[in-house]
Amino acid sequence: MTDTRRRVKVYTLNEDRQWDDRGTGHVSSGYVERLKGMSLLVRAESDGSLLLESKINPNTAYQKQQDTLIVWSEAENYDLALSFQEKAGCDEIWEKICQVQGKDPSVDITQDLVDESEEERFDDMSSPGLELPSCELSRLEEIAELVASSLPSPLRREKLALALENEGYIKKLLEIFHVCEDLENIEGLHHLYEIIKGIFLLNRTALFEVMFSEECIMDVIGCLEYDPSLSQSRKHREFLTKTAKFKEVIPISDPELKQKIHQTYRVQYIQDMVLPTPSVFEENMLSTLHSFIFFNKVEIVGMLQEDEKFLTELFAQLTDEATDEEKRQELVNFLKEFCAFSQTLQPQNRDAFFKTLSNMGILPALEVILGMDDVQVRSAATDIFSYLVEYNPSMVREFVMQEAQQNDDDILLINLIIEHMICDTDPELGGAVQLMGLLRTLVDPENMLATANKTEKTEFLGFFYKHCMHVLTAPLLANTTEDKPSKDDFQTAQLLALILELLTFCVEHHTYHIKNYIINKDILRRVLVLMASKHAFLALCALRFKRKIIGLKDEFYNRYIMKSFLFEPVVKAFLNNGSRYNLMNSAIIEMFEFIRVEDIKSLTAHVIENYWKALEDVDYVQTFKGLKLRFEQQRERQDNPKLDSMRSILRNHRYRRDARTLEDEEEMWFNTDEDDMEDGEAVVPPSDKTKNDDDIMDPISKFMERKKLKESEEKEVLLKTNLSGRQSPSFKLSFSGGTKTNLTSQSSASNLPGSPGSPGSPGSPGSPGSVSKSTSQMAAITTKGGLVGLVDYPDDDEEDDEDEDKEETLPLSKKAKLESS
């Protein structure tokens, strides 16, 4: 169907009382068998699909607004609207609706919106119309009382609205307003305020169209200046006529568009500034006013968007070097407001809007504007850029990657954004925070597209780390060349915290790109210099960055941390913090607790070997002693492979059986004749039967002797040399209390955990997991089913319970074969 008279947009009202666009199509009316009645049908103009199928119910209240809108409710919380392209089409469909409901097409509402009591209905039916008092100065009080008394009743509101429309009453009231102002009749002006406010609460489009017409709107605003609750009148008209100036940065040739812009600004001003804040009961009474403004904005954006001459001239002047600064500022502010208006559009329309701006060259224009010195112009350009990034980050990413092929890194749009973030002069860094959020959106892989031919994530991140990352990290690297930050003022600390926040986000969401960058540029070492900052929030940002890296449990990162001894600044900060129970203390302990719980063996060994002497006295948490216990268990297994293999054999047979062992046992089981077996005899693989108790005890006794020998040797060394340090790098920690403690560590390759030349690190006699305390436990040997087993380590209890449960589920005959005693 090509008839533009029937061309409509379908809207639904959402929970936030905003209109959602459901699509554009052509409306018709006809009998629908399925719905058993005359219905409104809207078919999409794109594919002919059915956008709306709504039966015209005799009792549904339909409302006609602004000559091109029909609004109604399908259910209690489901409002619909049809916005017609032409008034003639709206009138045709309105006549059909009124014909079905038996109403006169001249009305603007077909039914009462709310049911009333039978008594009220009877009273109102007995008086067919509402008679208004004659519009005279002496009867203003009577008129005000009539309006106030009609508001609670929907039927009376309807009759009052019809009476006001039919008699041209509003214009008569505004004539009296001029008389009252001339006579300075304050009482009459107060009554007029109450009357006009009441007319607003009638929520009628037909009345709004009269009140917001060019000849009436300023007088309506004048009436609302005289609020009885205020001692002095407001000067709203003075502000609108003298202070608020309409500037045509680009001349608008369409008079209808110009009038619509004036009207929308003034009505928005009435809603936001003039009308008192509506009470809970009055809020829904102004829904038509909200709709009036909303549809006006949609029309303005649509009309400007279609005017290609206007937009072409706008962008030409924006980027022209000959344009003076004041003019350019006005152009940018107009474009910002234009984008703000677009937020009222629905997704499909907004998509078309931004596509139009993109085709006109908005991104190159923004690049030129952001390079200017005027702070206000740059701020407005940043707001426009944020609209673009939030709506379509892929469009921005595509532009900057194409731009990189032609320009140097210094003038890339994304690098301009980073530089403005770094150079923000605001003490609170308000602009920098906004720009950092935009950068975060641009580098977020979650909103990147992947197609069959290319992956946006791979391409853009490759571009970003090659052309932009060095600009982002420049302030961080410049400020961390020494052992403590070069500049440690509040504004610098805030900026570095923002950069660290973005880098932490990159560690979490980018994989090899950020890993390569951190390791190649030694970024973590530089970041940890900030642990010495006097600003706790910055030190915590640095710690959070490292914690995020450790949380990945990536051995590439772990080797980098160990090779560069990057726990040193953290332990220094922990010791300098002393006994204070604060966020720094808790965050550092949590990081070490994570290493212990996750059993990150390489980091556990590194921490204990290099920093145990500084941490062994921390006993208000068990984290560090738990780390030592993990380390000692690890060393025991490495120092005595036979014991470790024996322990694994015992655990395999007593607890966890792997698939191959189980297959061997089952095969032997089914090859054995039950009658040949003596009662209580255990079935054990031949390799285990050949082992006797002496074979098992021999390595244990040798291991215990070696342990004791190492303990005595280390005590002698400690007594002779006091506290020895590693050769490279040297590491000294001083307590704030005045006593100094040197940490011992071994850094040579031959002294890695478990290597033959590495010194042992036995626990103190009272520490958990020390050999001296557990000797009696280790010596205790138990036999079960012909197998010899050591007492379990503490972390084996759960596995023991699990396997005992599994054994209980076996048939009794098989249990007897496995568990004979």
TrEMBL record:
The organism's place on the tree of life at top rank: Eukaryota
Acidic residues: bias regions: 671-681, 793-807
Residue ranges of the region described as Disordered: 671-698, 726-821
Comp. bias regions, Low complexity: 767-776
Organism: Alligator mississippiensis (American alligator)
Ranges annotated as biased composition (Polar residues): 726-746
Protein name, per record: SMEK homolog 1
GO cellular component term, pick one: nucleoplasm
Domain PP4R3 EVH1-like: 5-101
